[in-house]
Amino acid sequence: MKRSILIAIVLIALAAAVFPQYEHEYADIELKRIEYKNWEYPNGLGEGKTNLREFVKGKKLVLVFYFAPWCHSSRYQAPITQRFYEEYGDKGFGVIGVSMYDTEEALRKEMEKRDLSFPVVIESTRLADRRFSQHFKYRWSTGDHRKWGTPWNIFLFPSKLKKKGDLLTKEAYVVNGELKEEQAEKFIREKLGLESD
Fold this sequence. Notes:
Layout: H1 2-18, E1 29-37, E2 40-42, E3 49-51, H2 52-55, E4 61-67, H3 72-88, E5 93-99, H4 104-114, E6 120-122, H5 134-141, E7 152-156, E8 167-175, H6 181-192
Parallel strand pairs: 4-5, 5-6
Antiparallel strand pairs: 1-8, 2-3, 4-7, 7-8
C-alpha cells in the first residue's frame, strides 16, 4: 500500500514537471495615456488587409486583442474574447485580434483548434520582431514590461476617435495582460448602455 502511494506521488510530481500549469496573467482595465495610431495589417485568415479606422465604423465599442498563437495566457483569454464577440457583436461591440510573433500557418491552426471566428490581422510573424513592433511600443508606454506582453488589450470608442490623420486617440482603456472575465463583461455592458447582468 505504501509503495502504491509513493508511486502515485512520484507520478504526480513527474506530470507536474513535464506538463507545467501556467499561471494566468490577469490585469485590470485601466485608463491610460497612449498615442494609439491607425493601422492597416494583412488579414490572418484570408486575403487583403484591414484598416482599423474602417473596421470600427458603425460600432460603439471595439476591443483590439493582441495575442501570440503560442502564448498560454492568450489561449486562456481567447475563448472569453470569442464569447464576448458572439454575445455582444449585434449590440455594437466589435472585436479584432492582432496576431504577434508567429506564422500565418500557426495562427490558422490555433484559430481552428479553439473555434475562434472573430476577425484577425497579422502585425508580426517573427519572434525577432518583438522589440520593434508597435505592440511593444504601446504596451511599454502603458507600463506593461512583460517580456512578450501577450495578451494585451485596448478598448476603443469609435465615436471619440480622431477622424483624420494617423493618430486615433491619446488615451484609452487598456489591459496589460489577460481580461478578467467578470470585470470585462461589466465594462462592455456598461459602455454599450446595457443593463447590468
